[in-house]
Amino acid sequence: MIRILIADDEPMVRAGVRAIVATATDPGITVVAEASDGRQAVELVQRHRPQVAVLDIRMPGTGGMEAAAEIRRTVPETGVVMLTTFGEDEYILRALGEGATGFLIKSGEPEELIAGIRAVADGAAYLSPKVAARVVAHLAAGGAGAAAGRRSAARARVGALTPRERDVLGFLGSGLSNGQIARRLRLAEGTVKAHVSSILARLGVDNRAAAAVVAHEAGVAPVPSDRPRREEG
């Protein structure tokens, strides 16, 4: 059972997340706490220790990004999924540095929420297909020269990886968990975990979501399709 916390200042949004979880075709997710702001979210995460905290980016007082940073510092075993709306691209990029490993659009498909929660609970990064596309588009919006510079820098960073690490990064950038990557590459899951740790260190990033962005910029991971990837059996 995956235990989650929901934090959003809008009761209707919290109710919507609860309803999606309750009616999921693949049960196994339960809501253990709800919060209306980031400060309360941190306190409840510290009390209940859920596997995943689903946080709205913008809330009164302490927002989602500040809460994500504090959760990462005090309860690192809890993964963070950020809920965003269109027009908040800069918040998405900032949140990459605050420990969030999942990003979902509030107007996205309900199954994306389930896929995102399961991926983050399993230790993977999950970028909603629309979020991934917007992150890449936003990074390219600084102009052709700036975008080319970022692509070149990303390729140079990826070039420092071993061939096997580049394989792992490609699948990581596509949102696969360690277990899924292990099955694809016919490796032990512990070996994949070691590769991921090495990749984060070599790329100079703190989490899988940031590594996924580097993968997209370097062209080693495709922008996902409009439908979430289904868990392999």
The number of helical elements comes to 11
- State the helicity in percent bands: 40-55%
Rg calc? 17 Å
Count of individual beta strands: 6
Low-pLDDT parts are 223-233
Mean of pLDDT: 81
Strand content: 5-15%
Ends distance = 17 Å
Describe this structure in words.
The chain has helices spanning 11-22, 38-48, 64-74, 89-96, 110-121, 129-140, 144-159, 163-173, 178-185, 189-203, 208-218, and strands at residues 2-7, 29-35, 52-56, 79-84, 102-105, 126-127. By secondary structure, the protein is of the alpha/beta class. Helix 7 (144-159) packs across helix 11 (208-218), helix 8 crosses helix 11 and helix 9 crosses helix 10 (189-203). The longest helix has 16 residues, at 144-159. It is globular and about 45 Å long. The two termini are 17 Å apart. The relative contact order is 0.12. The model is unreliable at 223-233 (pLDDT under 50).
